[in-house]
Write a structure and sequence with these properties.
Elements lengths: L2 H31 L24 H9 L12 E7 L4 E6 L3 E6 L5 E6 L1 H9 L6 H43 L4
Antiparallel strand pairs: 1-2, 2-3, 3-4
Helix pairs in contact: 1-3, 1-4
InterPro entries: PepSY-ass_TM
Organism: Sphingomonas olei
Keywords: Membrane, Transmembrane, Transmembrane helix
């Protein structure tokens, strides 16, 4: 089997699996690009009373979250991360349940809550929702396969042009000169 035929078969059979992966990555990536603009994907960042980082402890942020009836009983085990934004005067307490509570850094009051669909989209985007193995096998594998598909695609696209060029040059060499 020639190299051209082998590359064409690999390219042909790898395409459907790669297309599924690329559609997932493209759709979720497009939505993630809009996450700051679409409230459904990520709650908009509210402004606090005053910008700057006041003297507020992390424990007081958890107390502010617990003051909300929907999040009563939240402990440190329930918190995924805290995003402090001194410029906005706000701290985003992001729970493992993908809910976000925005706490004013000056008053300590919870000013907004919402569900972060963008975090779910990120786990789908890099396939980590299936486990860490999927992030490395599927996401990394898709990248490698895409590089391979691009290289073989360029080769298979350019090959007929190179063959025609070679035939034209050979024909011109065989033509008797006058």
């Amino acid at each position: 089997m020639s190299a051209q035929r082998l590359l064409r078969k690999i390219h042909y059979w790898l395409s459907p699996a790669l297309l599924i992966s690329l559609f997932v990555i493209a759709i979720t990536g497009s939505l993630l690009a809009l996450k700051k603009d679409v409230d459904f994907l990520q709650p908009p960042t509210r402004d606090g009373i005053a910008p700057g980082l006041p003297d507020r402890s992390l424990a007081s942020l958890v107390t502010s979250v617990n003051a909300l009836p929907a999040h009563a009983g939240v402990t440190w085990k329930d918190i995924d991360r805290i995003d402090v934004r001194p410029k906005d005067g706000i701290a985003k307490v992001i729970l493992k349940s993908r809910h976000e509570v925005q706490v004013d850094l000056t008053s300590g009051a919870a000013v907004d809550t919402g569900y972060r669909t963008s975090d779910l989209l990120e786990t789908i985007h890099d396939f980590s929702f299936m486990g860490d193995w999927a992030k490395y096998v599927l996401s990394f594998g898709s990248g490698i396969a895409l590089i391979f598909m691009g290289a073989t695609g360029v080769y298979l696209f350019a090959l007929p042009m190179l063959v025609r060029r070679r035939k034209r040059i050979d024909k011109e060499r065989r033509r008797p000169s006058a």
